[in-house]
């Protein structure tokens, strides 16, 4: 046993020394003689020693990454190291870690001699990483032309894409020389990834003019559209790639309408991305020249489709003549609205860049303290998000949170404003109503979807946040309703929502539970730091509204806690709120899953001034006695069973 333990310690020491030398030995050097001698004494188990890993990597993997071909050859030939044993390759720029073979590691690290050694010992040339990427594809990304050519000569498959559909050619757009080599060896110039993008799309995105020319010369199709409906010309416009745009216009046959739309979109890109009004107007005038040159019945070529008037865009129409454009050019605000109109018409409302432009322009208005303009645009973006993706989508949730946080902070006067004495009410009741209808109308359907399997945590979290947004909208309804008509509408909206009885996913809280809890917050650190969260709840007037609209005062969540349990806790406590719940019939003696009753929680609270005795009825005492003494309640009327259930521990 002593010999066995000693041997184990020796093997551990050898392995640690081997890892150390593989990491720190000079480039081109061998392992030290003493270490090789010690390794070779363990003829039967040295393969086991070199197969151990530290931090996810075996000695062979480390040697391949550092390019020590002598050590690599020794570990394989003398020690029997497995050439396919995977290790962890960290990509610092991407903050990601991949599980890959030694050959993949050597290819990405640019270690050609090591790669040759591995291939000569039978390494699988097309072995993929955990993301499905082959060594040759990853070498293309690193622009290692010598390694790519050697791999191709030895049978590497340049047509094999990764799990996202990314090909060798797509990974090579940064190098004309590498793209030329791949195309000469049979690369598919029009192969698409899961976003339906080709190498041409990526070349344009990265402003690679020479690569774009090469791909088009090899019959790349400039009319292929990505999943966002972007072809080559539209991609150039969205990325502001002027030289590629001009080249495409000169070499590809486009219709006058397509060219006019493209020039208008290019102008919008320069306005919104670079704040370059002069260049934007130049492209828009160029577009108008194209429309005028191709007039129909004496009128400029019409813009299609025709967008309906939208309040978010101040009911503006897109300029249709040169005179209208010249008039708009004198008003920076009008120019910005025109840019948004162009994006929505040319790209469509659901395009990611349309939504980005809406959020971006809204943010610039907020930074300029023009909050109503911001609300108008963010509300439009939220409407599109809900229509396109539903409230269970992360971006929809973000848009809702940032909009609600702005409106709440504006109402609470925590934001800097131009004039605090202005008569205009912000936020406006009609905005609150519209957003309330938009979000609350989706709650029932979304909750039903969360009952289907599988359920993703991200979708659950989105639902929880949207439900909290809805409670904050109820607060804003209370705050902004002024006239009797507005108050009647508020009651009707809240009454309809209460009937649907939406509950949180994780804890089963009702709207009333949420509105008496200080944990009910809408987090968005756009306007305020993350640790500077202004809490709205618990809120007496909101709780009163919910109770008036039919909210069940003794509703229980998953922990069998009622709203009164929540309101009785120290962090949520307010005498007026507790009294309100009790006045609406909340039971003081209802135990939750932990056995706590509101009466017990309140009696321990030194701040409580509510007289609890007057709220405990003889019925409650009788129900407690039935459970305490184990009396069977089967002989009681059915109408009392629910009352008894409230007192059950």
Automatic annotation (TrEMBL):
Pathway: Protein modification; protein ubiquitination. It holds the Pfam family Ank_2. It comes from the Eukaryota. Transmembrane segments: none annotated. ANK repeats lie at residues 98-130, 131-163, 195-227, 559-593. InterPro entries: Ankyrin_rpt, Ankyrin_rpt-contain_sf, TPR-like_helical_dom_sf. Keywords: ANK repeat, Repeat, Ubl conjugation pathway. PANTHER family: ANKYRIN REPEAT CONTAINING (PTHR24173), FI19351P1 (PTHR24173:SF82). Belongs to the fem-1 family. This is Protein fem-1 homolog A. It comes from Dinoponera quadriceps.
